[in-house]
Amino acid sequence: MDELIMKGQKAKKASYILSNMSAQDKNQGLKKIGENLIKRDEEILAANKIDLQNAKSKGISEVMIDRLALNKDRIKAMAEGVFQIIELQDPVGEVVSMWQRPNGLQIGQKRVPLGVIGIIYEARPNVTVDAASLCLKAGNTVILRGGSEAINSNKVIIDIIRESLKETNIPIDSVQLIEDTSREVATQFMKLNEYLDVLIPRGGAGLIKAVVKNATVPVIETGTGNCHIYVDKDCDIEMAKNIIVNAKVSRPSVCNAAENLLVHKDIAIEFLPLAIEALKSNGVEIRGCRATKAIVNDIILATDEDFRTEFLDYILSVKIVNDIDEAINHINEYGTKHSEAIVTESYKASQEFLQKVDAAAVYINASTRFTDGFEFGFGAEIGISTQKLHARGPMGLKELTTIKYIIYGNGQIR
Amino acid sequence: MDELIMKGQKAKKASYILSNMSAQDKNQGLKKIGENLIKRDEEILAANKIDLQNAKSKGISEVMIDRLALNKDRIKAMAEGVFQIIELQDPVGEVVSMWQRPNGLQIGQKRVPLGVIGIIYEARPNVTVDAASLCLKAGNTVILRGGSEAINSNKVIIDIIRESLKETNIPIDSVQLIEDTSREVATQFMKLNEYLDVLIPRGGAGLIKAVVKNATVPVIETGTGNCHIYVDKDCDIEMAKNIIVNAKVSRPSVCNAAENLLVHKDIAIEFLPLAIEALKSNGVEIRGCRATKAIVNDIILATDEDFRTEFLDYILSVKIVNDIDEAINHINEYGTKHSEAIVTESYKASQEFLQKVDAAAVYINASTRFTDGFEFGFGAEIGISTQKLHARGPMGLKELTTIKYIIYGNGQIR
């Protein structure tokens, strides 16, 4: 606990320096980090080897081990990610708007760093580099709490980052790691209101739920995506097929992948056999409603639970709906307000869907897979917010800042 | 508990209708509310009389009773507040920005209502009308939980609001009151994540602290203001005196009032006797540091605690600092990141203060008392945020909205 408070104090102190540094200075730090990651890759790999051995002896799943595992190429990719962040425009300092009041006061909104950001994440050591670099670029100090599986890799990576900062003007306490990976310390971290300005969890549904439940610090909830593709009666069937196949199979394990297909009843007989065949030939298991099963028999009958589930796998639930209203209501009730798409040639239907669906990203005639900071053109991504406060959808550098009001007077009193 | 969930469900359902209503329809509802408040003022006063009798029999303070008490003029002022909200521009529907990606996707950010807003407040029945009207105008449904002292007044006011909505197309469940004012129900309300998109506490430090501690719903923290006026060595002494007097005495009970005066040592001997005399003649008790007491003897010696206290009263703590850096560091350590001001004729000092002070509103040569939605020109205010997520400083209608990404494609897949 005392260690946590000390880290909080150091982070806050460093943030008052870092938040006033120029983009040039911050980029210098990032450059050193990228270079030293490559230079010292053997050290990282040695530590990662220990993590992998521990993981295997604990019988951890192959998927988890793949997330944990580093090699020279992956380290190079991490470093290149840092070099890319250097190229991005620094959002800090922009005066977003400024106006004059009748009494002569000039009131402006200036973009400033959030301050101290906490990140809680799981077994992926690349998050350590990625999150630290993005926070730095936006002028924030960061306290990282990674999963126990990656602790040896993380320790070395953080050493490299902090020693890189030593070669620059950036305070080394701009980046700190919580080395005690116990659950108690994590819970205390979530309540570090005096020092943390925001806490961002990155990981699975369990982690995010725990953070939302326990944190007293402001949280940005990220992640869960129970996404739908709704195929309207007036649509380009070929386009619809391509979109659902892409949204489901191009990368099933990510949050912007589709988990559900909704089909208007008037087009179901024509569309579903084609679509389901294409999906099946890509290895997708179909769980359909009764009406779907009446059209394509060789599928599993979906339960209500299936429609609520983010499979993150080669599984898709399918439902036939009577009209667009039923589709919209279903999405608003069963969805997680992440990414939702309609495929239609109807102007009216497209506008109604756009207006009434309550989600971070609503698409007309495109795959939900585009909900991503890079695909949106932000050049980076710290996560995808599924809450409505502060940031919604993909979060880039701008979402790691806040504003302060700056007011120029000449003696005004009230 | 069940009642709370039912209210949550109704609010969520109503929000899907209200969020798609035109400004015209919403204004029609507000007009009816304002008219009916005036028409039915006798009913409100009768209920308020019961609240006042209960309060007096419980021996509640005069200040609290003044906040609770209504009369015809106060009800008229409440109604006029509603009519003013009609005049404000509806923030919903604005496409804040839109851009095209190389693949042809058009990505836009559209301003939409937050959804369901919870408001927890204390004894002031005017908050009931004010908060409900602002939420409605921005397309949000609202669940209100006022203090037990005002429950009879609130019940009648909410009846009037809901019956007013009945005369329009707005769902009556757009505005609901939690009638059970127990602490247990309040705590459950703070954890109503499935239905509440945001919770805004309005009231004293105790209430806000309880909400931050207990809520699992996203919260916008409002309120506490331990504000400073820093008088730099190069300043217009008359201006500095006017600003500190205004910031302290024009309304000591509000969060944007100054609680601390910091003075550069080089100007202290000239400035402090003048300033303290002016403050004392306005009834202000001075609690100064040792150096201050050496210049003006007839004051109380300040404790460290005094510098951390939001007095909300005719009390001011005074400290002499060696330079602007000490002033900035003191503010960043002791302040609550609300409103901070420098009085200076130095360009360099003004820019340094603006840059380095970490607060929602930073002033050059003006009173901190301007931190207010109306003074900023927003035409309304739901509170003053002292956190950094989502909104910082005075929150108007715009801060009661979020954005959603709208994406126009023509078959893009990834």
UniProtKB/TrEMBL annotation, chains A, B:
Q: Where in the cell is it found?
A: Cytoplasm
Q: Which residues form the Aldehyde dehydrogenase domain?
A: 9-281, 309-377
Pathway it acts in? Answer: Amino-acid biosynthesis; L-proline biosynthesis; L-glutamate 5-semialdehyde from L-glutamate: step 2/2
PROSITE patterns referenced in this protein's UniProt entry, alphabetically: PROA
CDD domains (UniProt xref): ALDH_F18-19_ProA-GPR
Q: Kindly list the biological process annotations in GO that this record carries.
A: L-proline biosynthetic process
InterPro entries assigned to the protein according to its UniProt record, in alphabetical order? Ald_DH/histidinol_DH, Ald_DH_C, Ald_DH_N, Aldehyde_DH_dom, G-glutamylP_reductase_CS, Glu-5-SA_DH, GPR_dom
| Catalytic activity field | L-glutamate 5-semialdehyde + phosphate + NADP(+) = L-glutamyl 5-phosphate + NADPH + H(+)
Q: Name one Pfam family in it.
A: Aldedh
What task does this protein carry out?
Catalyzes the NADPH-dependent reduction of L-glutamate 5-phosphate into L-glutamate 5-semialdehyde and phosphate. The product spontaneously undergoes cyclization to form 1-pyrroline-5-carboxylate.
Give the UniProt family note.
Answer: Belongs to the gamma-glutamyl phosphate reductase family.
* Name the UniProt record assigns to this protein: Gamma-glutamyl phosphate reductase
Provenance organism: Clostridium cavendishii DSM 21758
